Amino acid sequence: MKFELKSPENERASIQVPSEIAHLSKPFNGVLCSQEGDEYEVTNNIIDILGKDPSFSSVASYTNHWKLTAHIYEDIWRKRSLSLLTGEDFPIEKEHELLIEWTAPKEGGLYLDLGCSTALYGRALKAAQKKADIVALDFSMQMLEEARLKAEADETDLFFVRADGKEMPFFSKTFDGIVMGGTLNELTDEMKVLYDARRVLKEDGKLFMMHLIKSDAWYGRLLQESMGLGGLKFWTKKESNKLFEQAGFGIEEQITRGIVCFTLLKVQ
Ligand SMILES: C[S@@+](CC[C@H](N)C(=O)[O-])C[C@H]1O[C@@H](n2cnc3c(N)ncnc32)[C@H](O)[C@@H]1O
Questions:
Q1: What would the pLDDT profile of 45-61 be if each residue is shown by its tens digit?
Q2: Ligand 1 pocket residue status of 136, Cβ below 6 Å
Q3: Which of 67, 186, 219, 242 has its CA 20 to 30 Å from the CA of residue 150?
Q4: CATH number, domain with residue 228
């Protein structure tokens, strides 16, 4: 598959990405170069567009850059989190079923796991549609390194890009679908990321969003307020839908369980 990135230095210049970068059984190290000559390092198949650590504006974004957080995140927290947050038995398989049903990855399609952490969604998409290509993007190198280990262990080929979701290195209308699991609550500038997601999505593309909404219970709100100090944000369903609409999305499907909200967004 021909996959290209948009140079952050010159928005008309492309960076051609060789397909073997996604073949994780073969380590790829080197440099990718745009048509204008700007260069980006590739270390162990991870394309680094940022080149430096982002400035940390919250505890949540700081801890995502720890190796320990990356290492324990998926197995200790992520796979059990929805049963705790929905208040019902919600195994990861159930979440994956919904992800695949709504995203419906197609043969030859290109999909983006935005704020991928360990690329749980990206791996699930590839497992469901081997003939699709998946790009997993995060600004934390530690998360991407862990994601790469997990994908290689699963024999799943993914493209890994280290970049900021606010200014993604992709041309407009690149992706057939975008998936975002829990990332919205951690963003410092959610509107910029939503606008950029809208930009890089094709006209008939869909965005699968899982995010946490404000709790109705007083003790839930108290907990969420204290989490707010660490940089996590929560909105009511109505407030979240307003954000989506402001960014140019329409709501195609929506399900809420406890404080977990699943939404399928379409381009308006
Ligand atoms: C809650 S985790 C995502 C979990 C993952 N999507 C899943 O389903 O398991 C949020 C991730 O978003 C990343 N992130 C936060 N802000 C970002 C930004 N501006 N650009 C890129 N990644 C970002 C963090 O590094 C973190 O790995």
A1: 999 999 877 666 665 66
A2: no
A3: 186
A4: 3.40.50.150
